[in-house]
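Feature request disguised as a bug report, sorry. It would help if multi-protein outputs had a clear separator. Right now it looks like this:
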Amino acid sequence: MIQSEQTALFEEEASSPRVSGRFCPKLGPEDLGFSKNIGGALTSRSILLYQAVKLSSIYQKAGLVQSPKHYVIDENRLGIPTLSSRQKTCAYLKQEYGFSEEILISRALFELHRIHEEEASLSLFLLAWARDALLRYGTLEILGTRHNEVLRSAEIYKVITGETENRYRESICEKIVSNWMASWTQSGHLSGKSNKCRAQVKAGPVALAFACLLSTLSGETGENIFSSIWIQILDLNPQQARELAQKAKEIGLLDVYSMGGVTQISFPGLRQIFPGKL
């Protein structure tokens, strides 16, 4: 599918989560790790995706046994020079990504990475997106921006002030927008310095499997999973998502079965994490 057709598909399908002018994507329950709370890292910083990837690589080797405090503050594995900065970074990383067996969607992501090693930035971005409402605002504007087209910060400012009903003063909202733009640049959806242009991300099978899992936990079923907002964030159309799901199936990340127009997606390796949910 050429870029213009793919963008048009995203624009059409992405319209459904907006209700009465508000962005209302389907989200799973908070006891699994999803969050609808407004606030978080973007009021002060970006989502610190680079640091999250580095910490994730430590956890992939050691398991989710130690708290982020052990690696970020005590051992300073991220190389942050001052104690106060380590403490702030640790708090933001915990808020955005969990890094705990008690945050079930975080635990599931690390189980997927245990099955198949893959660069973690996109799957971690999905995790942050599930947990940070401010990061979610402006998603439809990202998906509706064509490849190499400039996304204006003024447009995102308008969206965020509308979604938050002007709860933040102007200077804080400007900082949120700057951190929002930086976060979507870290994920690969935007590129450039002063002028941020839309870029294409390239998802691997772990990111696809995690997107399907988050979509399933948020109430989507069957073919609807392949056109969900979680898949669109990976810059995949439904056909591309189906093809990547077959690769994910081959390496044991999920099961996908289609017959007679009915599609079923399951996650045998994750059922112990979500008893009765999958």
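(second protein starts here, but nothing in the output says so)
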Amino acid sequence: MREAFELALDRDGIVQVGMDGEADIGNQWVAPGNAYYAKNVPIPKRDVARAKELLREAGVPNPTFTLVTPTTSDAQKIAQVVQAMAKEAGFDVKLQATEFATSLDMADKGQFEAYVLAWSGRADPDGNLFSFDGCKQPLNYAGYCKPEVDELLNRSRTTLDPAERKKVFEQIAAIVLKDRPVVYLFHRHWLWAHTAKLSGLRMIPDGLVRVQGLRMNLGVGVLNYLVQRLATLVPTLFFVSILIFGLQQLLPGDSGADPRRRGPGSDSDRAPAREAPPR
């Protein structure tokens, strides 16, 4: 049934409608362009006829399940597109929109049948894989557990040679992507808006901006503009200061702390009291 569900999905359509085209389709924990992408398990194409055939073979031509989705706009659109596509293969997908924090709590407790979840991603495949597919790991919402996969996951953490490590990930993909505890759909584009004067911005696939090395390049034109503004501002401030000082001298009223301008009877005019000499 999991295979039938994946075959019912058109990843390109999901990206175009649900993500406005701002994502790359994928079927693994890293994007197809990543050096650790397992090419032995490519992205399956949509095949509704095969999906229906698999459901008939399983004896459930019209399975029903509830898909929990956060209330964010992109998650809602993705869920609706998935619902429509799966229906063509015979699936009756019911949507349950849930506030994000509540949906995470439900996922932790295993109180769901299917769940739409986005992950910001990590630069190394281990950050996208170990906690999701390792036995009893904190993000393993599907409850997936296979000793042979755990052994491979641990081996991927101790293998230093990149080529050998990639072979380990290929072995993991051959098992996990067949079991489908998670059906990967796409890898979103991280969009950053900044001035052209900013340099040193590094694009790291985890959604976090590193401030180290960032630099604002102020060209000669910008510096000239600042000098001109200061040249205009300084005389203005000087004139305003003179004007305020003159008004303080001319206007009646309390003139501040100058004791010479205090009226008679003020505290500053009174001599301190002295004690009477003893008799």
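Even a blank line would do. Unrelated, but nice: Residues 147 and 172 are 12 Å apart (CA to CA).
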